[in-house]
Hints:
about 500 residues, alpha/beta, two-stranded antiparallel ribbon, about 5% strand, elongated
Amino acid sequence: MAGRGTLAAGAARAGGERARRRATPLIGADPVVGTPAAPATAPAKKAAPAKKAASVKKATPAKKATPPAKGPAKKAAPPAKKAASVKKAATPPAASTPAPATPAPRKHRPAPRITSAPSARATTQAGERTGRPKLSPREKARRDEALRRPHLRLAEPPPAPPVPEPAPVVPPLDPTIADAPARSGLPVPDLTDLVEALVVALRVAAEAAGVAPEDVERRVAQVLAYLRRRFDGDYEVDDFGYDEHFTENVFYPMLRPLYRHWFRVEVRGIENIPAEGGALVVANHSGTVALDSLMVQLAIHDEHPARRTMRALGADLVFQTPFVGTTARRSGSTLATSEDAERLFARGELVGVFPEGFKGTGKPFSERYKLQRFGRGGFVSAALAAGVPIVPCSVVGAEEIYPILGNMGTLARLLGLPYAPVTPTWPLLGPLGMIPLPSKWIIEFGTPIETDGHDAGAADDPMLVFDLTDQVRETIQQTLYTLLMQRRSVFF
């Protein structure tokens, strides 16, 4: 009987536990909404049988079983009573008026334990008080400045390098010189000593070559003076690009050896060149390379008492060639246009023109000293418009410096040249073929042809322009024949 009492007590406890679990809602479940209350009389009558049935049903096993002792029987009773109370609590109380629906109380699981405490800054921002004293704005700014990131800090200046110890003062070589050069193991010559040594070497070389040493010293002095003026910028260049300082000290001295010693130029009729004012010099053109224009220019400068400079008019190809075009501009040449010629005449310059152009320089040796066509007479129109005289000029000897035996037309077209000559020395001898033959030259200036006696519109008269052009051409041609008859030899 003792075993049955124990089982009955366990069953009662299990029934009460199941009832308690059914009455407890799950976490997250919707709250249980109670139904509206019924009249007070109805639940009262129905509740009593339920209670009685529960007590009878639970008391039946206790009567059948023989209680072994008082203790266990008394302990088994409380679970039944507890279950009845739980079941009774689940029943809504009776009321005279319907009560509002209230959700059943929810029983949650125990909250998790928080092991980390919030920071002091978060606690302060949340409005909670801590035991730490509140910082003043100045103290807070000082701490923020100290905690600023390193790359936002201003770079500190590098430490100053150590000051080297002053070098020991060495007395100069000469006590009378304040700025003496520093002492070194090897003697360094002065610039003055170098110049003096150069002059001595040139004097020795001049005596060996049979040249007066005084001329060498004078030339060295001129070169040094020229360099000093170029470094100082003490020279002028006109709007055409003419550099008189360069022409007088570099260009003409380079041509004089050819003029005096190689071609041995003989000048006639230099007095026909006017001493002042504008004039037009018209000359024949020959020689494969236009050396005759340079010799005429130098002859007027060196042989004329006024040492005048002739401003030659050149073709476009001359000024398009590297180095040649720059040198031509700086030596006084300009483009062969009527506008440039008129501007030069207005300034009183002496202008030189070679009407044959490339037809004259590129003609074969078999046609030597036969003048080609003089063009349309543009130079005569410019002279008539300006009222300046026309001076015919004849050059003998230039045809023999590079005798043209043939022309490589295909090569000339590929290179964009008017002709590619074949001479006795070129291209057979290579670079040596570029050396001109030392022929004897004669340059004669004829009587000027005046143009100032014509009317103002004479430059626009084509018949007058043609007549003057033909007159100048015939004068030069007849002079060439005369000079050829007077010449003893090509080279003497």
